[in-house]
Amino acid sequence: MPAALQDNVPAKYTSATGSEPDLDELNEKYKKLTPVERIQEIYKDFDKVLLTSSFGTTAVYQLFLFHQAGIKQPVHFIDTTYHFQETLDYKEKLTNLFDLNVISITPDIDQNEYSRIGELWRYDPDQCCHINKVEPFEKIRDKYEVWISGLMSWQSSHRENLNIFEVKKGVIKFYPILDVSEEEALGVIEKNNLPMHPLKPLGYESIGCKHCTLKGKKRKGRWAQTVKTECGLHL
């Protein structure tokens, strides 16, 4: 485990060897809490917390929970330069609704242009994601102890095998809404009259970059007709 992570983990959540976080203890503790309680508790257990949002179809649910929890946390958004205009408009709508402080993470200008000229999304989607999503994010990731992400277990076979906490690439990843069902999340959205992503009623259930997103159930519209299922941030 990277020394930086080892140094950042509070002593009460360090394993008996003192070399890594005790994920079993964290998962056991947080599994008993509601999503709002989990969000409130993470700030008691850790100091340097990173929150990201794709402003996709389920983003409003997690952001609403932060609002309910009374947490004013900057939200980092990876702007690949390839988002649907509807996603950018939705980001602005949720920013105003929840009074968010959104910080955009952008790719290297030259590398982004290279991906555009070469149409990497068509010929090498893994490299395109690496240039425009993974590399920009990695530049800030190591500044934090915990990364909060809105992954939900029903979204894909990869995600259904995750725990609330895991360690990836030197950071503790925290999924406070992982075990919330699709029906439960939609119920909260409808009950509170929260705005829906404008592309969802058109059949887009998971929304990423416009070149690589089609209509489809769950994540089946992402990188359709390829074996790719994740951008690389969560692998």
Could you characterize what this model shows?
The protein has 235 residues and is an alpha/beta fold. The chain has a single domain, classed as HUPs (Rossmann fold), CATH 3.40.50. The chain is 39% helix and 10% strand. It is built from nine helices and six strands, in the order αααβαβαβαααβββα. It has helices at 3-8, 23-31, 35-45, 59-69, 85-98, 109-117, 120-123, 125-141, 182-191, and strands at 49-52, 75-78, 102-105, 146-148, 165-168, 171-174. Strands 3-2-1-4-6-5 form a six-stranded mixed beta sheet. Strand 1 (49-52), helix 4 (59-69) and strand 2 form a beta-alpha-beta unit. Helix 3 crosses helix 4. The longest helix has 17 residues, at 125-141. The protein is globular, with a radius of gyration of 18 Å. The two termini are 17 Å apart. The model has no long low-confidence stretch (mean pLDDT 85).
Summary keywords:
alpha/beta, 235 residues, 39% helix, 9 helices, 6 strands, Rossmann fold, globular, six-stranded mixed β-sheet, single chain
Spell out the helices and strands N to C.
HHHEHEHEHHHEEEH
Structural domains: how many: 1
Largest sheet: 6 strands, mixed
**What is the fourth-level CATH superfamily?**
HUPs
SSE-based structural type = alpha/beta
Strand order of the largest sheet: 3-2-1-4-6-5
Low-confidence stretches: none
Tell me how many strands there are: 6
Globally, the shape reads: globular
CATH architectural arrangement: 3-Layer(aba) Sandwich
Q: How is the CATH topology named?
A: Rossmann fold
Q: Give the termini separation.
A: 17 Å
Q: Name the CATH class.
A: Alpha Beta
